[in-house]
Design goal:
The structure is a homodimer. The first copy, chain A, is α/β, with parallel strands linked by helices. Helix content of chain A is about 40%, strand content about 15%. Chain A contains 17 helices and 15 strands. Chain B: It comes from Brassica napus (Rape).
Chain lengths: ~475, ~475
């Protein structure tokens, strides 16, 4: 008799894909400025390490928050016992207001519609359990975060059907692609329950345009299905444009309080904006009471530590801190992204033009031997083993075109980033064809910059999701 | 088309049962010594509030642990980024040693076989995902913790088949009850994957005897199935006997490193022994590498906050603290249990003789109008509404005999417990029929104490599991 479940013996956890090799290689030989200057530089981790100093100063000024005290008095007992799956009211209030602040206070979030979870990993899985039966499908635009294969499908039994996006229009979602994906699901005899998008996108690093958001809302309205908008990177928007949430679109289309609005759910987390993946703070926001109710009960399987809820409710309730943080975060991300982009350019490499996220979606198609995923893997291995950079190959996030890679920029110092770019440039220039390509890429770049075709968006961004992170 | 999953629309979350009424009533009218002395006293919550002072003192002496510092230096960044699903090594080591200490250092726990989870709620569900397919069954001795209906079955699709235990032998597990349950599962066309026991038992408050443990190990050996031993209350043993873990039995039967040992899994948590349900700390311990590996990946859905792992690794690494704590915890629980037992006796009410846990399994059969569950519910409503005590009716934990209730004693002050006992005594004496019963109960108790039938164990314990707790 089979002793262990198929969840254990199968590979539904999604972690057998070859790109984990890069992660393992990094672990064996991690770069250290002093101790191991020739080691591998980790560029596959979408972490935000740029603003810790701001949080550390806040902590130093507000010692009670971490020390389990309120106004100097210990509230240890209260916190030790607090396990209410409705979450700490002060914390949900602060979260709702922080989410509003990120959206320029144009939309409101009701704390009662927030369900806390142990990270967005838990939030996304819980939403799947609420919306899909085993065998039901969600449509996801490619490329998408590799962890979704595990988070959305593994224990839930749900399926993912890709909405193919291509570089021809900067990987934007089109009506045709949506319809095609929907029909494909039908061909596979799968019932489509909804669409899930990450906005801003991982791995693209771009915010969905208003056009795309309208398209999505219209689509789910006509098909009578759900829309999950994972807005985990909403606070990492550094472009000139503001972040437009699906909630903005509902408001602008006057769809608040309608049937459709009950099928639109937002997922959030503090892992990227605040750089706190270790604290396990995620949230589901839904206008559907039944979902809020069921998800709340399900959150028993992944509650946020009361110790952490207390610390963060104090942090996020400090509006002086939050506005300063969001502004500074934006600035630093912008300058760091610029650094990566120019470094890549001097190596003759372009990226998709990004305005958010902690990574760039890099176009290395010209460095492939052939336009195949095998060639992409070969190139990737060279970059990992020879150039000693762990970046993430586009195939692991189901990109339909070979040659794209996600390269992170917010998880290392400026000096390390410069070194990484130097190594890459050396590599590109050292390979024979690379030398020619590099020059022609450079020419190509110069000519492209002169173009003013409005729908020609160079967007580059991709972050490899390693076992624990995205 | 069905918009939400059946997990949402059905009541498999198990929270529609009438006993939640008691919880709601308590919330409307909670006892407070000063502000609401006639309110409902909460005796349905299995919390351990007896030793917070010990932890508070330790926190005051070791401010770095909560303050996110190590040797005075901030390690905030390190913790903020730490999301490795293998867990903080220092914490797993400290947890392993704490588990060994609870078992008198007779058995060893390898930290590498520990998988952390957000509470044992998460740990138990994860184990189910690893061991059972939808439709597979686990056998559980009754009465059992009501939360298992949700934790083990809701999202996993697994089934529970009860192993009926009766008061005739103090609710101990017998061979025939095991066989009967196994056959019942087969009649229902369910594939039995294993047995799950809580040891010490919730709601009974008793430890499994060595005889029962041997029986269980022999049974799973012959049927080639798993045994999950939820030892969440292992640190609350206050009787003269030591706690005997299933790990002790494996060792004594020389089954360590055998095939059988790979099918024995222990679940633990710090919610009861240390009184920290809010911090969400649970663990799975398994000798099966595949289970450890899969459960580790699944723990992504419920990781323990790094902030909390750090605090508790410091706390549990302090052996002076753990030694003092376990000792003192035992003493205080013992005294408090005695207080409850004598208070009940003075009201002519007996309990199952208990040696562990935070509750007693109280025999109120003599107070029922008829020997039915309807009568049990009637009695329970009177106790909630008139006596103003929220205790938990045995029917909610699938007890096969009406009239048993779980009454908690470790979540309130001595005075509050006294008041609760006074109220109960008044109630019992006030009802006409009860006046007679009370006297005869008292006689009955006196005569029973004179008996020396070794297998006549008076055991009383049951704790209602409210939405968030057990």
């Amino acid at each position: 008799m089979k002793q262990l479940s198929t969840k254990v013996t199968g590979n539904g956890h999604g972690q057998d894909s070859s790109y984990f090799l890069g992660w393992e290689e990094y672990e064996k030989n991690p770069y250290d400025e002093i101790k191991n200057p020739n080691g591998m530089i980790q560029m596959g981790l979408a972490e935000n390490q740029l603003c810790f100093d701001l949080i550390e100063s806040w902590l130093a000024r507000n010692p009670d928050a971490a020390s389990l005290k309120r106004n100097g008095q210990s509230i240890f007992r209260e916190l030790a016992l607090f396990q209410d799956y409705h979450g700490m009211p002060e914390f949900k209030k602060a979260m709702a207001e922080f989410m509003e602040e990120i959206r320029g206070n144009r939309v409101t979030f009701d704390p009662k519609k927030i369900v806390l979870a142990a990270g967005s990993t838990s939030a996304n899985e819980t939403l799947m359990f609420c919306l899909a039966e085993p065998g039901d499908a969600f449509l996801l635009p490619t490329p998408y975060y590799p962890g979704f294969d595990r988070d959305l499908k593994w224990r839930t039994g749900a399926e993912i059907v890709p909405i193919h996006c291509s570089s021809s229009n900067g990987f934007q979602i089109t009506e045709a692609a949506l319809q095609q994906a929907y029909q494909q699901a039908h061909k596979l005899d799968l019932k489509v329950k909804g669409v899930l998008v990450t906005n801003p996108s991982n791995p693209l690093g771009t915010a969905l345009t208003r056009r795309e958001l309208n398209l999505l809302v219209d689509f789910i309205t006509s098909k009578n299905i759900h829309l999950i908008s994972d807005e985990i990177y909403s606070g990492t928007m550094f472009g000139f444009e503001q972040f437009i949430s699906v909630m903005d679109v509902l408001k602008d289309k006057k769809l608040e309080n309608t049937e459709v609005s009950k099928r639109v759910h937002v997922v959030y987390s503090l892992s990227k904006d605040l750089g706190l993946p270790g604290f396990r703070v995620g949230a589901i926001y839904s206008n559907d009471e039944m979902i809020v109710s069921a998800a709340t009960k399900m959150s028993s399987f992944g509650l946020v530590s009361s110790q952490t809820q207390y610390l963060l409710s104090a942090l996020l309730s400090d509006k002086k801190f939050t506005s300063q943080y969001l502004e500074e975060n934006q600035k630093r991300l912008k300058s760091r992204q610029k650094r990566l982009v120019s470094g890549l350019e001097s190596a003759g490499i372009t990226c998709l033009r990004s305005n958010a996220g902690l990574f760039c979606w890099v176009d290395m198609r010209h460095l492939l031997d052939t336009n195949t995923f095998e060639a992409e893997l070969d190139l990737w291995k060279k970059i990992v083993y020879n150039v000693k950079l762990n970046i993430s190959p586009g195939s692991s996030c189901h990109c339909t075109e070979p040659g794209w890679f996600r390269v992170c920029f917010a998880n290392m110092s400026e000096g390390t980033l410069d070194l990484a770019l130097k190594r890459l440039k050396t590599f590109v220039e050292s390979t024979d064809c690379g030398r020619m390509i590099s020059r022609s890429s450079h020419e190509r770049l110069k000519s492209l910059r002169k173009k003013t075709v409005s729908n020609w968006v160079f967007r580059v961004s991709w972050s490899d999701r390693v076992p624990d992170e995205r």
